[in-house]
Amino acid sequence: MIKKLRRYLVNNLKNIPGWRTNRKLIIIECDDWGGIRMPSNAVFDELNNNGLPVNTSRFNRYDSLANKEDFDQLFTVLKSVKAKNGNHPVITAMTNMANPDFEKIKKSGFDTYYFEDFTTTLDRYYPGQKVFDKWEEGIKEGIFVPELHGKEHISVQHWMKHLKSGHPELLKAFNHGFVALGINDLPDILKEFRPEFYFDNDEQKPFLINSIRESVELFEKTFGYLPRVFTPSNGLFHPDLDHEVASNGIRYLYVTRKMPYPATNGEIKFRPFTTGQRGPEGLIYYTRNCAFEPTDPEYMGVEFTLSQIEAAFRWGKPANISTHRANFTGSINPDNREIGLNELKKLLDTIVKRWPDVEFLSSGDALDIMRRN
After folding, report:
1. Cα 173 to Cα 192: distance, rounded to the nearest angstrom
2. So what's the pLDDT on residue 234?
3. Is pTM beyond 0.85 here?
4. What does 170-197 look like in DSSP terms, one character per residue?
5. E-only strand ranges, 49-192
6. Could you report the per-residue pLDDT of 25-70, keeping only the tens digit for each?
């Protein structure tokens, strides 16, 4: 009873500050598209059987680049639901634009970092499937709208440093095309080398600034438009980098209500935000207020997400639902995809039944409404 009361209070209090609207807007922001995680079930078994700590999360266990079947089944669910205005639900796909080129990195003796764009990685993972054609199909139909999640979902400089030092487990994972390995001498915030924008000295900043620029260039080259929205990986981002985001044409920066950032010597500090705050060059900060993680062991069911949506609408806020690709991929385990998509179908069907005037929008379109008003 106390836990329920606490959740109720949190759901409501977090929606009080900031911009409001009478429209019932639903945004589904799904992180991690484009970036690699576990290459295959065979790689997982090989690393796990050799004693490497890979069975630490559902992401390492089930998440991989989405294949053609993943897209076909996801799109079937999205197109099976329609709002009153005729729109289908929209996945805003927060996309990492590049992955390591393992072969070139190894040939350099781990002295130089090389990358490949994620479409090249898709072709290497799934030859002959033409998976990027499914991306373009979803974009054309307006149900799958990429935005920017950064260049890599990897703390590149720290990863390269530990590879160069000859860390045996990390090198074994590297030889199997796997990055996200937890090793003992990493700070907690740098867990599994996932936060792209972690640094522990100012000399590492220029690399990160260049990564922002390169990610925007790759995005425009790949999709034919500039990203409007940027979500830093693992929700960690230094205020000194906000200007770089804005100067590259991005309008909206995802933040948390208590946003971590690296300070002196890697110390973690926090800055508070509410949706609608403005930053340099007209940059607008926004937060998410709902969560949907159906393949998480701690998932509390569709009603938990619906209660968050209800609280958002009560306070005149769009319902911005946070989720991850790991909920909808089945190349490693088809059961994982089936569970995630079945729950997504339940959620979407209930939303349109409970709120008949709901509108499904991409992040960029919804945030443009906020900007205009």
Report:
1. 12
2. 96
3. yes
4. HHHHHTTT------TTS-GGGGGG--TT
5. 91-96, 98-100, 115-117, 144-150
6. 999 999 999 999 999 999 999 999 999 999 989 999 999 999 999 9
Q: In this structure, are residues 25 and 318 in contact, taking their beta carbons and an 8 Å threshold?
A: yes
Q: Which residues contact 170 (CB under 8 A, 6 or more apart)?
A: 159, 162, 163, 181, 183
- Give the model's pLDDT for residue 240: 95
Q: What is the pLDDT of residue 356?
A: 96
**Residue 198 β-bridge partners:** none
Q: What amino acid occupies position 136? A: E
Token pair for 231: 């979500």
pLDDT of amino acid 279: 96
88's tokens: 């289908």
- Structure tokens of 248? 């590259």
Domain count, the chain: 1
Q: Which of 241, 275, 234, 236 is nearest to 366 (CA)?
A: 275
Chain center to CA of 118: 15
pLDDT attached to residue 16: 74
Numbers of helices and strands, H then E, in the chain: 14, 13
Cβ contacts of residue 42 below 8 Å, gap of 6+? none
Residue 160: CB atoms within 10 A of its CB come to 19
Distance CA 259, CA 276 (A): 15
**Cβ-based neighbour number of residue 228 at 10 Å:** 20
Q: Which amino acid is at 247?
A: S
Query: Which token pair is 29?
Result: 């922001």
CATH number at residue 274: 3.20.20.370
At residue 264, the pLDDT reads 79
Is 349 strand, coil or helix? helix
- 130: phi > 0 → left, psi -120 to 50 → alpha, else beta; which? left
Token pair in block for residue 49: 């059987």
What are residue 99's DSSP bridge partners?
116
**Model pLDDT, residue 11:** 75
Count the Cβ atoms, other than its own, within 10 Å of residue 56: 14
**Domain containing 245: what range?**
2-372
Which residues does the chain have with pLDDT short of 50?
none
Q: Give the pLDDT confidence score for residue 244 in this predicted structure.
A: 97
d(CA 147, CA 28): 12
Chain position carrying tokens 């922001």? 29
